[in-house]
Amino acid sequence: MDSKQQLLQQSIAAKEIFLPHISADPVIFGFEHNELKVLLLKTNYRQKWLLPGGYVRKDEDLDEAVKRILKERSGITDIYLEEFGVFGKKNRSEFHFEDFDETLFQKQRFVTVGYYALYSPSRFHLIPDEFSETCEWVFLSKLPQIEFGMDHYEIIQKALFTLRQKISTKPIGRNLLPEKFTLPELQKLYEAVLGKELNRGNFYRKIKNLGILKKLEEQRRGGAHKAPDLYSFDEENYIKAMKNGMNSW
Questions:
Q1: Which of the residues 41, 42, 125, 234 has an alpha carbon 20 to 30 A from that of 144?
Q2: For 38-54, what is each residue's pLDDT tens digit?
Q3: Which residues in 119-139 are b (16+ Cβ under 10 Å) and which e?
Q4: What's 153's DSSP letter?
């Protein structure tokens, strides 16, 4: 079955199962080799890259829908997602499905709700769905070079902007770094998110003052230089900071 016939069949079933005009698009950020990545699908139809999004069933809540969608489209489960924006430009879906007439469910005008999360790529085994050629992590720096469908690049940019705003009041790193890490490794993560270099002394002082780190009685061995101290996140303080926020720095 070719990709167009596949979408036509999906359209027939979708009209009975899903709510019209609303969808959800999760932006899942990962961190590897000191760079941010984002989870994307390359679709069978038109060979364009999209977020692993989808439609909301008539009998489910929106938050439940986005978790189900992510599982069905990428195989990812047990993940906390946070809503960050709504996207509703006219023709955001229609032009992507220009090969079809107006009766196609997917071609209707959809307002989509954006969610984002931060997780280590190594945590998941990706499984693309039947509508996708591949599901993979793509470095953020590579995104301008690939062809996106609809407005999904814009959604990613808004998710990154939101993340950069919240990094001053909410901690990051627990889902992106190994259990034990060094301060330079944590600094590299913050620099990757913010897109700029940070002063080492200022960063170390500020991150320690937040009270979310525990210094361990061990060092990272194997390097040519002095072995750096290892840290882990203080679970209780980290959860409190996620819930209540922390002083802006």
A1: 125
A2: 999 999 999 999 999 99
A3: bebeebebebbebbeebebbe
A4: H
